Amino acid sequence: MSNLSGLQPQALWSQFEAICTVPRPSKKEEKIIAFLLQFAEEHGLEAQKDHIGNVLISKAATPGKEKVKPVVLQSHIDMVCEKNSDKKHDFDKDPITPIIDGEWVKADGTTLGADDGIGVAAQLALLAANDIAHGPIECLFTVDEETGLTGAFELKEGFFKSRILLNLDSEDDGELFIGCAGGIDTLAKFPFAKEAPAASSFAFKVSVSGLKGGHSGDDIHKGLGNANKIINRFLWDASRRYDLRLAAFDGGNLRNAIAREAFAIAVVPSAYKEQVRVAFNMLFHDVQMELKVTEPALRMKLESVDAPSYVMDAEAQKGLLNALYACPHGVMEMSRDIDGLVETSTNLAAVKMMDDHVMVTTSQRSSVESAREDLANMMMALFTLAGAEVKHSDGYPGWAPNTQSEILQITRDSYKRLFNTDPVVRAIHAGLECGLFLEKYPDMDMISFGPTIKGAHSPDERINIETVDKFWKHLLDVLDNIPEE
Fold first, then answer.
1. pLDDT tens-digit map of 374-403
2. How far out from the chain centre does Cα 90 lie?
3. Phi, psi of 183 (to 5 degrees)
4. Catalytic one of 17, 78, 219, 460
5. Contact between residue 479 and residue 137 where contact means Cβ atoms under 8 Å apart
6. Which of 56, 298, 310, 35 is nearest to 158 (CA)?
7. Mean pLDDT of the chain
8. Rounded to whole angstroms, what are the CA distances from 429 to 176, 181, 320, 363?
9. Which of 8-42 are b and which e, b meaning 16 or more Cβ less than 10 Å from the residue's Cβ?
10. What is the CA radius of gyration of the chain?
């Protein structure tokens, strides 16, 4: 039985519910690719898959619209797979179960996948319909947007024919996006030697949870807590005052998500047991007060555990904790051209202790390419000074705004006509695939829009029901008003 029956537009919601049954983690999109190709076959539509897994499904114009300029609609088929620590869910196998929660649709303890499943669903609903007026359309479904923009990077020139692109991967109703930031990752590897902990030691686990997390582009300016920074604040201080030795550190997950949870296992000499507990409780109080507005559900816990078999060597630990403390996180620069736009930021995304090294993942974004490179180099210098082996990812370009865009004018006029209000035209600090499309198709006219999604990249992800209906009506009206060639 459908959990979303009765929601409008039903054609879109039914497609969304269908794709929620298909596992689609980033880099594991085989099942959703097969689903799309089967969908095309069942509806008698032309489909093709490229070498990397991108899928293109084409549909001819409806009668009377044959001379209209062709349009390509684009969304990504992978989703961020995040869940609360107490939630049992296998993203490789288990379906997402969407549920209605007041004005929102969400999942139970996991990401919903509305980013960008709602765009995928809109494309499928359009492809399946026989009562919607439109010119020639192509629907492009790209892979691995969330962890590497791989589909957009690997897209070959000529895969589609249209020169108007509607990106359906934005998350704010009433806002039209005509530019985005570029990004690059800086990865630091801290090798360490294993040492036996002192015989008379107090072993404990500290954890941070209950943070909102969120998108490291869209939400970086909101003053949210970063679990890696919070837990390292305690570890760094205790290492100096109580001879703390680190045995485990696991915080955050994805490069484009603000770390919601983290834990560490450490030991101190038994004589410091009570001082450590007191220091931890005092820090908890301080952080609660600092983040009481943005992170009211913050939880911090210290509990005794069995002694670990080894700890990091002291020199490697010193370099790691110093680097994490000095590592910036958050907004570095606001735009001087567009009010309210974050220009440059960095995210301390993940800290993962392996068998013989600790891997630290950070992500830098900027709408100014030189600023992005400068910040990435600053991160490299910081981690190099701390003794890490450092490398950068390939990075991806931004999308420079074009305020004279024809599709912008069409989309803006449509929104005003439908809803009697002017949409906001802006750039976004998050990365979109549009910058990479522009490299392959420099004459492409693009815009990005979508319904309201909150908490993307976290288990709090939810999509506003009313704005989905508006998004659908807006999309159809835009297609109906594309001019002839």
1. 999 999 999 999 999 999 998 888 888 888
2. 19
3. -150, 165
4. 78
5. yes
6. 56
7. 95
8. 13, 5, 29, 13
9. ebebbbbbbbebbebbbbbeebebbbebbeebbee
10. 24
CA–CA separation, 374 and 376 (whole Å): 5
What is the pLDDT at residue 112?
97
d(CA 429, CA 332): 12
29 belongs to the catalytic site? no
Question: How far is residue 205 CA from its own chain's centroid?
Answer: 29
Pairing label, strands 424-428, 175-180: parallel
Q: What dihedral angle (degrees, nearest 10) is formed by the CA atoms of 292, 298, 304, 307?
A: -110
Query: Per this entry, what is the length of the chain?
Result: 485
- 485 as an active site residue: the answer is no
In this structure, what DSSP letter does residue 131 have?
S
List C-alpha distances in Å: 388 to 191, 233, 381, 391: 7, 20, 10, 10
CA distance 105 to 208: 27
Query: Mean per-residue pLDDT for 164-184?
Result: 94
Distance CA 124, CA 56 (A): 12
357-366 and 342-353 beta bridge pairing: antiparallel
Residue 39 near residue 19, CB atoms below 8 Å: no
Name the residue with tokens 């869910």: 89
From edge to edge, which strands make up the β-sheet containing 71-76? 46-49, 55-59, 137-142, 71-76, 164-167, 445-448, 175-180, 424-428
| Terminal Cα distance for the chain, rounded | 45
- What would the two tokens of residue 120 be? 């995928």
Contact 263, 235 (CB under 8 A): no
CA distance 114 to 211: 21
Encoding tokens for residue 289?
């007060």
| pLDDT tens by residue, 84-139 | 888 999 999 999 999 999 999 999 999 999 999 999 999 999 999 999 999 999 99
Proportion of the chain above pLDDT 70, given as a percent: 100
Interacting residues of 91 by C-beta distance below 8 A, sequence separation 6+: 23, 25, 81, 83, 110
> Rounded to 5 degrees, what are φ and ψ at 302?
-125, 130
Is residue 170 a contact partner of residue 467, using CB atoms and an 8 Å limit?
Answer: no
For residues 264 and 250, what is the distance between their CA atoms, to the nearest angstrom?
Answer: 6
The residue from 17, 145, 146, 172 that is catalytic is 145
DSSP bridge pairs for 137: 59, 71
The conformation of residue 52, written as its DSSP 8-state character, comes to T
CB contact at 8 A, 50 and 154: yes
Q: Which of 458, 440, 348, 443 is closest to 396 using CA atoms?
A: 440
